[in-house]
Write a structure and sequence with these properties.
It is a single chain. By secondary structure, the chain is α/β, with parallel strands linked by helices. It folds into two domains: 301 residues, ANL, N-terminal domain (Rossmann fold), CATH 3.40.50; 100 residues, GMP Synthetase, Chain A, domain 3 (2-Layer Sandwich), CATH 3.30.300. It is 28% helix and 26% strand. It contains 14 helices and 29 strands. Strands 18, 19, 20, 22, 23 and 24 form a six-stranded antiparallel sheet that branches. A five-stranded parallel sheet has the order 4-3-5-6-7, with helices on both faces. Strands 13-14-15-16-17 form a five-stranded mixed sheet, with helices on both faces. Helix 9 runs parallel beside helix 10. It is globular. The relative contact order is 0.10.
Length: 526
């Protein structure tokens, strides 16, 4: 194993402290360029903004340990609200800006959020009554019953609180991860978890990130990949972050050339689109991109080779999960260590084991190199647990080890390879889709007696959700019924969770105990 050292000691550090330290060290340097409003913030300006916002939160009645919900696309307000919330001693929970009302209400209610920072365009037609929210702040477009985000930046005399617990006990983020059963779960990540993972990523042999980096980010910041693999590490280094609100090929290609971008985090479906642009001669030949990192979903080796062949840009992939803040493994760019089919080696202080399974599907013995087994890990980046979910926590955190649900193998040189997964999660363009959540919505439709949702491999998206539906008596299959069911789901769940295909069947295969036999459904679509 090549990685043994961290960038620095993470003990006792808080996320906002390590970011504000950069604001003091590089006051004139550009921290963030928000393309959605053409605004550039220097580190000095950003630090001042974060401190003003934090005092504004306190003056608005926010107390230590309360939850602040951030429901925004990529923008400078998202970044500042996140770091200000932690500075004020609050817990930020981050919402997907494409969420529908049902999904927003669930996360706000489950997290118990006291304050919401959003934009009027996102909530103007939502009913948010009856939630624990005390105040809602809107950034650029107002909405009825909300206050202006700008009010939080007004000078106030509020005193910032002292942290009353160690950094490994205070939450720095409460992202929601789609579990394989039921609704999404809040993942409790402490300041120590996040800072440790940043320092693991910035450690020797772990990353090519530099302080003179200019990184282009279209990955959503509400996702832990955008938050703690892009935003926090770049600001800790004093690098420059260019934000765009969503993936847009023409805009990306223009920015690569115009802004001298040196690094770009991405996901496999975006890489595929960039390859298509390069094949059409649209990828700028005068770019300065040194390297690209891929994550959030498995990277097909042929896609990695295709991208590098077309653009000349080396690419490495990483592996992780929200519960690990999120990174546990990272590949290498050096030719002698480059393995396009591998997720790389573990980060420093990340221990790994693998266990096989018996015929009864029970955990068995530890396996060695070349043998498949479920990946178990432990390290400073792993979550404290799931929010209000002790049973779910106990299922994945056992004796200090996190059970990933992924089947992997490793070679004699400690390189790891993902083979399959025991978990039921669908990865659509890198976004996790819990089959149980989609099934729960389908079962609310009066025509649906039973249903099961599985993944089908897809070249463009990685995987797509496919639903198998049993109709009630009196309802017939057909295009009209399929369209009605798709529309029903679309009104209640964000776009990436919606089934791309619906198959009408006589029965959904189940075990004697009632569990869906997803492997049988997958056989039908593969």
């Amino acid at each position: 194993m090549l990685r043994t050292q961290l960038y620095a000691d993470p003990h006792g550090l808080f996320v906002h402290d390590v970011v504000l330290e950069s604001c003091r060290r590089f006051p004139e340097k550009t921290a963030i360029f928000d393309t959605s409003c053409n605004r550039r913030l220097s580190y000095g300006e950003y630090g001042e903004m974060v401190e003003k916002l934090a005092r504004g939160f306190v003056a608005a009645g926010l107390k230590l340990g309360e939850v602040v919900a951030i429901f925004l696309p990529n923008c400078w307000e998202f970044c500042a609200a996140y770091h200000a919330a932690t500075l004020a001693g609050a817990v930020p929970t981050l919402l997907n800006p494409s969420y529908r009302e049902r999904e927003v209400r669930y996360q706000l209610e489950n997290s118990g959020a006291a304050l919401l920072v959003t934009d009027g365009a996102l909530v103007h037609d939502m009913n948010l009554a009856g939630l624990p929210l005390r105040r809602i702040y809107t950034t650029r477009q107002p909405a009825s019953g909300t206050e202006a985000f700008a009010d939080l930046l007004m000078p106030v005399t509020a005193t910032l609180p002292e942290m009353e617990q160690p950094s490994n006990q205070i939450l720095a983020a409460l992202p929601y991860s789609s579990g394989t059963t039921g609704l999404p779960k809040g993942v409790m990540l402490s300041h120590y978890n996040l800072v440790a993972n940043v320092y693991q990523l910035l450690g020797p042999e772990a990353s090519c990130l530099r302080s003179d980096e200019i990184a282009l980010c279209f990955l959503p910041l509400y996702h832990i990949y955008g938050l703690n693999v892009v935003l926090n590490p770049l600001l800790v280094l004093g690098a420059t972050l260019i934000l765009i609100p969503r993936f847009n090929i023409p805009q990306i290609l223009n920015l690569l050339a115009e802004e001298n971008v040196t690094m770009m985090p991405t996901v496999p479906p975006a890489l595929n689109a960039l390859c298509q642009a390069a094949e059409q001669g649209l990828f700028p030949s005068n770019h300065h991109v040194r390297w690209v990192k891929s994550g959030a979903a498995p990277l097909p080796p042929e896609l990695s080779r295709r991208f590098t062949s077309l653009t000349g840009i080396p690419l490495c992939q990483g592996y992780g999960m929200t519960e690990a803040s999120p990174v546990t493994h990272v590949g290498f760019l050096e030719p002698e260590l480059y393995r396009p089919d591998s997720i790389g080696q573990p980060l420093a202080q990340t221990e790994c084991r693998m266990v096989d399974y018996t015929e009864n599907d029970e955990p068995g013995n530890e396996v060695g190199p070349g043998e498949p087994g479920e990946l178990l890990m432990r390290g400073p980046q792993f979550m404290l647990g799931y929010w209000k979910e002790p049973q779910a926590t106990a299922a994945v955190l056992r004796d200090g080890w996190y059970w990933s649900g992924d089947i992997v193998s490793r070679d004699q040189n400690d390189f790891y390879y993902v083979l399959d997964r025991r978990k039921e999660m669908i990865k659509y363009k890198g976004f996790p889709v819990a089959p149980a959540e989609v099934e729960a919505v389908l079962l609310e439709h009066p025509a649906v007696r039973d249903c099961g949702v599985v993944a089908r491999p897809d070249a463009a998206s990685g995987e797509i959700p496919v639903a198998f539906v049993v109709l009630r008596d009196g309802f017939g299959p057909g295009n009209k019924t399929e369209e009605e069911l798709c529309g029903f789901v679309a009104e209640r769940l964000t776009a990436y969770k919606q089934p791309r295909e619906i198959h009408f069947v006589d029965a959904v295969p189940r075990t004697p105990s009632g569990k869906i036999l997803r492997r049988e459904l997958r056989r039908q679509v593969e």
